[in-house]
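Support reply, case 0932

Customer input (verbatim):
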Amino acid sequence: MTPILVICILCVFAHFAKGVTGAASAIVFNAGLLTALALGLSGGLTLLDGLYWIALADLFASAMLGVLLWRQLKVEKLALLLLCGLVPITVVFTLLLPHLDLGGLSLVLALAVVGGGVYLAFRPDGKSASASAINRWALPTGLGAGVLNGLFGMGGPVIFILLSRASDDPGMFRRRTVFINIAAGLARVVTLAACGVFERKHFEWFGWAVPVMAAALLLGMWAHTKVKPRPFRVALGLLVMLAGIGGLLRFALG
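Our regenerated output:
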């Protein structure tokens, strides 16, 4: 397979998930990338190439969702507090990304993907916490999420923990994640561009994949009103977990 074919296949699953939930596309894409690398089916696509490409793709997808849902989006104290922690830490760890050892990076990504899958699959549906309690945890949550977001573009698992306690309304969850992802994604892409890591191939792959991303995103938005959130989340979490375990096996076997 060629890199663009691998990317387009992963896009279908990743951006369908984003259309349904407003997030999780980077988790799904990275899980699929780990699986492709472990099975030797990446078509020459490297880990760093995939991480650079998903940064561009996720910003596009978040912006597209933002345009489609703009009447529903609003600035909230919770989102602003999260971004105060998320954006600066995202910038710091994005700057570190091109200089890290690929072996260690693969291990950390595999562990993060497994953790994200476990959370998606087994998170209990609990009663919403008070606004004051949620706001108290917003800044430290943003700081923690910034590490994963800067390295892998997937601060979602950490952010999901807070947002799922803030409200059990899937629509509210999606609106909040879209707003947060636009700001965090922009910070990551601008930082990567300043580092000079983007090459012509990344933009060519992005251009070829845009129709696939757009179609998968729109299909996911349609499914948002049809799919029951909990079964979808459990199935998605189990698939992500398996992919992360595959990445760990690849690391262990060299």
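We compared this against your earlier run and they match. Two observations from our side: Residues 170-195 form the longest helix (26 residues). Residues 99 and 105 are 10 Å apart (CA to CA). Please reopen the case if you see a mismatch on your end.
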